[in-house]
Amino acid sequence: MLKQTRWLFKIYLYLQTPNPKTVMKNKFLFLLSLTLAYSQPNDPVVMKINDIEVRKSEFEQVYKKNNPKDKITRESLREYADLYALFRMKVAEAKLEGLDTLMSFKNELAGYRRSLAAPYLSDKNTNENLLTEAYERLKEEIKAAHILVRISENAYPKDTLEAYMRISIYRDAVLGKMPSKAQIAQYEKLLLNTTDVQHMLKQKDSSLYFAKLNSIKNLEKNYKQAVDKFKDLVPYTSDDAGGKELKGDLGYFSAFDMVYPFENAAYSTPVGQVSKIIRTRYGYHILKVYDRRPNRGEVTVAHIMARYPKDATPEDKAKAKRKIDSIVELLKKGENFEELARKVSDDKQTSDRGGILQPFRSGRLPASFEDVAFSLEKNGDVGGPVETPYGWHVIKRIDKKLLPPFESMKSELKMRVNRDSRSLMGRKNLIARLKKEYGFKENKAAFEEFSKVLDSTFLKGTWSMDKAKVLGNKELFKIGNKSFTQNDFALYLERNQTARSDKDAMFVAKTMYPNFVEESIIEYEDSQLENKYPEFKAIMREYHDGILIFDITDRKVWSKAVKDTVGLKEFYEKNKQKYLWDERADVHIYTCKDEKSAALARKLLNSGKREDAVKNEVNKKFKDALTYSYHNFFKGENKTVDENWRPGIVKDDVISEKDKSRSIYVINRIIPKEPKKLNECRGPVSADYQLFLEEDWVKYMKNKYKVTINEDVLYSIN
After folding, report:
1. Which fold has domain 298-401?
2. Residues pairing with 52 in the sheet
3. What is the pTM of this model?
């Protein structure tokens, strides 16, 4: 997840265009996937950037993937062509500066490749570990609540980054760490650039923008008012509309009840703690685990219901309670439960079958109903009445099943795992398939020859592969078009030998040989991924270009803006009228314990005494009766100052309702609008300076690179 997040962050950052209007105008720009096709016969060149050719097939795939729903127009094609040309210029600049040759770049790309290759290097068949894990989890039920920030799986990088930052801020908040002003400003900038907000703002609708921004700005206030520091924040934060009324409470659940990443987080988070951020197909989540308990099994019950409406009045509820009480009395007198359900139950969906519900496990019905149903000790027992949000119920137990032994439900587990996202491929099944696919051929006689060269030094961990040279380097096995030889295995043995107590070196080699074969097959398959899977090759190209663009932009813009203090200061001096303080009042507040000390303080102030003199004289006569403080207030921050927006001593004391202390306000001066000092506005100045550097860099590249667009080819895309 962390690697994926960094990748999304890199893509997002490089995609920031220097012109906000361009961002607003192109809602389809630069999805995470920039799937690239390669030149084919009769594949004309759609554009040239100096000597860099872009073929129609490449451009068409990228354009259509990033513009999947909108109608293709000449204007959108031309606009996208300009943006794609700029994208290619940045990649070219990075290569010219040798960024693709740096070890840091190669290591990072290799790391992304390992993560990307992992799903291709396992088999979908279930294995014992997954079955055992699922069964062990089924033994327990987890009670948790969650906060969801919804984001689709194929969302734009800028939208994904906004969602990730929002869920990160929420997680910090529920843990007691409120967002700083800088974080809020950074988030607001991301929010303004998101697809949905841009679209709504164009329609003169700012509701979504303010809803998301205020959810961040109001965190501290809502946190202070919250009793449960997680659940009480859910209505103000979560995008799970259906769960807001329940404050994100998911009740109790077990294995297979939630999507697999969510399930993993729930079972790996201790009771009372908040999970790490989780990504599912619904978006980003955080969850808090409130309880763990043994699985209560599956119960079948019948019920008789006295319903009241959702907006029930006290009279409605009382009427329903009288009805259920009368039903209980009839049951006590021996009336048949099922017959009563058919005659009087308000649940018409079950009344015709004697009130019998479908079997259920925990988390399916209201908790109060479930608690009674699972507490009934034997079939035929009746419990209640119990109230739920739908009315009053009496409940009869029909049957109850506890979790069966592992072996008896193994087939069911396999079936459920196969339907679940955990059904990733196992290594052994993959190897078996690859052996068949690649026509695996083995020369066992060549392997047996190692008995001639493996001696006691191998058991001591000091054997050298040079001893195997006498074997002639025969082929041990072949995968596809690649042979693995005796020398390859000798190198493997040398690298993996350890001192052993075994006495037979060849026996040890035989135990190591299958691992060598398996690792070789996996290694070969790994080397073929780009050839076998066009989508893998395309995504690796995305990673390659994305990292380069991030690194070159960091070098030309972001890090430069941080390190170039001289340039930043010059930029500020030229533009400081953009960074102004609003008109402010310079105010001294003298707070006195009571009316007498306040009267003396006011008298001294009216006589022209200064702060220290007033404080000393008042505190000399009335011990520790006066404190004073300095403030700069903007309009709207203080009612008393707003009503006396002029220099002078405010006429009336401000009396505290809490302790009856009195405050005397002295407005020293009204400070007119003035530029902020650089250290007071470094954040927005740095952001604007980065934008300036980006614009300057883009101008440089557009002068350096000549873009020639073949409009006949471009406009033939349909």
Report:
1. Chitinase A; domain 3 (3.10.50)
2. 49
3. 0.48
